[in-house]
Design brief:
single chain; 7-stranded parallel beta sheet
């Protein structure tokens, strides 16, 4: 490893390697193509980040020029993961002034285009925006030395596989390719082997932790009633020693409603879901990382790769769709060797789904215990004071809240600006008719005549109308004369 990279990591408190890093670094630093598989929260990002930074030529390197085109490409499935990976790579490469650019949708094109023109070393991006920039000839991938597919199984689930294949075809054929993920379906293995040269598959686990989830995470699975969930969550959030907490929902509407309900109860909560603009999503994440809010309610958009320190609790407000989603959700806590608590609520209708997840992961919660906000095992199992209610006491409402975090103007794409109705019709009206009645040409007709619509009498009925008289003529003269 380069001395500058080691110093940058040491300054951030990163000294010891995790199992996935210990096994992948020797091979990856030698330029070998590899497939890395490990549980979420065990350091996969630096597992590919350190070798990636080792192979590129940075502006601060001896004899290194300022290359314009990217030398390394990291493809990720979600915007939030894109920001996180770019941040980690920028930290590790800070000693060499490595230029890292995060490219993802929801933001204005112009800043990303300007950064690409100025020159970048590493591009981290989501498939859609990467393809857009490549088609517009702003992004040239022909000089990529290292290609990384991060969380490839999620890209498969989201339907990004054709886009990923297209992006891979744009890169240099002589390159190092690495694929990292917590789960590895057969389709991803086939994809990797199609674009990799004799890849080595590494699956890293701790000797005393053979399960699918991290051993340091304390798990609780309860059968809860939908109308009692918010009350139950409000009590859990007052447990002794609780730090930052993430709550996961299946739908965007539920996520926003839960965040609003918790805010009304005195908690500092924010939401991250697809109905929010990118600026609002990043505002909530920044507030969560800085501690201005300590509860983040999110859909599964935040279940991949979001690495926030001091997350002590994860609550699955709604049962996950499958075992992979469950693993990634609860993996937001218990990261980097820390301990954490994961609580899952299962509705009566979701019991069959949960039992499949339980069987697949080999857990011990086949029949979740029926639980209410007043159940004794909630208070004793999580260390909640006995007199706790569903409202946070005023004395404990010490967080600044979401509004204390600035909402950044990102020049968001895909959203039409709101235009007032008068502005929309202004040009048309100015050409076709006067703006108001005072500008109309006055009428010379007296009141009550046809030109005055306000004083026109009502139409007479058929019985009131005079009968028509017909004079019969013959040869232009009256008949009978």
């Amino acid at each position: 490893m380069l001395e500058a990279t080691a110093q940058a990591l040491e300054s951030a408190g990163i000294v010891d390697a995790f199992p996935i890093q210990e096994q992948t670094l020797p091979l990856a630093l030698a330029g070998t193509d590899l497939i890395g598989q490990a549980k979420t929260g065990t350091g996969k990002t630096l597992g590919f980040g350190i070798p990636l930074l080792q192979r590129i030529t940075a502006p601060a390197d001896e004899g290194g020029g300022k290359s314009i085109n990217a030398q390394a490409l990291v493809i990720v499935p979600t915007r939030e993961l894109c920001v996180q990976v770019a941040k980690d790579l920028e930290l590790a490469g800070s000693g060499r002034n490595v230029r890292v650019l995060a490219v993802y949708g929801g933001r204005a094109y112009d800043p990303q285009v300007e950064a690409l023109k100025a020159g970048v070393d590493v591009v981290v991006g989501t498939p859609g925006r990467l393809i857009d920039l490549a088609k517009q000839r702003h992004l040239d991938l022909s000089q990529v030395k290292v290609l990384v597919l991060d969380e490839a199984d999620e890209m498969l689930d989201l339907g990004f596989l054709p886009d990923v294949e297209h992006l891979v075809s744009l890169t240099n054929k002589v390159r190092q390719t690495m694929l990292f993920s917590a789960t590895m379906p057969g389709q991803i293995i086939n994809l990797a082997r199609r674009y990799m040269t004799q890849p080595t598959h590494i699956r890293a686990t701790d000797p005393d932790d053979a399960g699918s989830t991290v051993l340091s995470i304390e798990q609780h699975v309860w059968r809860a009633h939908a109308l009692d969930k918010v009350e139950l969550v409000a009590r859990i959030l007052q447990a002794d020693g609780r730090g930052l907490t993430m709550i996961f929902c299946r739908t965007k509407r539920t996520a926003q409603k839960v965040a609003d309900d918790l805010t009304e109860r005195g908690f500092a909560a924010g939401a991250v879901h697809g109905d929010l603009g990118q600026g609002a999503r990043e505002q909530a994440l920044r507030a969560f990382r800085s501690g201005k809010v300590d509860v983040l309610v999110a859909t599964d958009v935040a279940a991949r790769g979001i690495d926030v320190q001091d997350v002590t609790h994860v609550i699955n407000y709604q049962c996950p769709e499958d075992e992979k989603t469950y693993v990634h959700r609860i993996g937001r806590t218990g990261r980097a060797g820390a301990s954490g608590v994961a609580i899952t609520f299962v509705d009566w209708d979701d019991i069959p789904r949960w039992q499949l997840i339980n069987k697949e992961l080999g857990l011990a919660f086949h029949d979740p215990i029926e639980t209410y906000s007043s159940s004794e095992h909630v208070f004793t199992g999580l260390g909640i004071p006995a007199n706790t209610t569903g409202v946070l006491p005023s004395a404990q409402q010490t967080r600044a809240g979401l509004n204390a975090e600035t909402l950044e103007d990102l020049g968001e794409t895909g959203r039409k600006p709101k235009v007032a109705s008068s502005a929309r019709s202004g040009n048309r009206d100015s050409k076709s008719r006067p703006a108001n009645n005072s500008q109309r040409k006055p009428s010379n007709k007296p009141s009550g005549q046809a030109g005055d619509s306000t004083s026109r009498p009502a139409a007479k009925s058929a019985s009131d109308r005079p009968k028509r008289s017909r004079n019969r003529t013959r040869g232009g003269k009256p008949a009978g004369s």
